Amino acid sequence: MFDFFTTLLGALFVLSVIFIWFMIAYQLVLTIAGFSHNWSSAKEKKSIDNLTHFESPRVCILIPAHNEETVIQKTLEAMLRLDYPEEKLEILVINDGSSDKTGEIVESISKHDRRVRCYNVPKGEGGKGKSRALNIGLKQTDAEVIAVYDADNQPLPDALKYLVAELLLHPELGAVLGNFRTINKDRTWLTRFVSIETMSFQAILQAGRWALFKVATLPGTNFVIWKHLVDDLNGWDEDAITEDSELSIRVYMKGYKIKYIPFAVTLEQEPETITVWSKQRTRWVRGNNYVVTKFFREIPQFQNKFLAFEVLYLLSLYYIFLFAIGVSDLIFILSVSHIVAIPLPGPYTTVWVLAIILFILEIMLVLSYEGLDTFRNFLLVFLMYFTYCQFWIYVVGRAIYLDYIKREKRTWSKTVRFKLEEPTGGK
What we know:
Number of helices: 13
Strand order of the largest sheet: 3-2-1-4-7-6-8-5
Structural class: alpha/beta
Distance between the termini: 55 Å
Mean pLDDT: 87
Shape: globular
Low-confidence stretches: 423-427
Helix content: 40-55%
Largest sheet: 8 strands, mixed
Number of domains: 1
Radius of gyration: 22 Å
Order of helices and strands: HEHEHEHEEHEHEHHEHHHHH
Oligomer: single chain
Number of strands: 8
């Protein structure tokens, strides 16, 4: 019986090594492709800057806001600095059942600038999630293009212009998303890790997948989409707590594409405590679980087979990561404790070290885009592999437990905001 258990552990260990190397190798391909996309995007940005005639469509920015008094004023100040024709821009804050001064702050600003409008969700109908707030806001405008920003975002002045220009220049696009950077990256160790994670996600998964397969997925903020398309799709799915990834799949199924451009930048807050981070990330994984359940059977019907593969990979990424890292960590602990010994021959230590080195090199290449490939950040990435990345095991495991064992109802939970004196920089 013990021999069988040891053999099983050996097989699981080899399988976990294969999965980890597959993910890292695939990410290496995406990293190189992402580098190419970032390079070509610089030329694309220049061509947009050189446009002499640009017929701007009417744009409505939807900002769902539930108890956002801490950040909403700076957000609106940033929106009012956007380089977009005033007569073509509407900034609609959906005051979603706030019990603080969110509504008062928005109303005060709207008195001085007619671009800003506050829609107060009727009493008893608010606080039911971002998807519902967006659907309510969608009905309040007849603009041609919808832009979505979270209530903590401070887009750079040219962000909206670039997003809309891409949408107009490429008829095959249904939506365009931009880049987001961490405004509070220097506040804690956690925000430093999250800043590196978000830059890597965008430069590898978003930029790389667009370069290779013309596939990208909507984030929750800093994107534009044709209003007629959202209407055709019957708005956002109000059962989805990650409404962005759910909507992305339906946009592709409708025959449109979604493009990622790195030069349309917004600054946003990230969680500063592990409790807030864990709650937010658990919501993300549970939202992914919902999307998997909703679309998994439809994946074989996708006409674009590259898209089908990418959607399948993206939806299963959490679970592959949980299995590979969880199993390998468990076996490592058992081996170090001399409880079991893996009898399989092979240079596993070398393979493991090379995997860590390749992971670090990929992230450092991404950081080099921003001139952040410093020795300090090298140490941060090394530490991140053994701490931050490992904590994802808990998050994914907890989400699976809540959804498939406890079967707890999925509900929207707002990320806690923190007061910032002044932006600390976006890189």
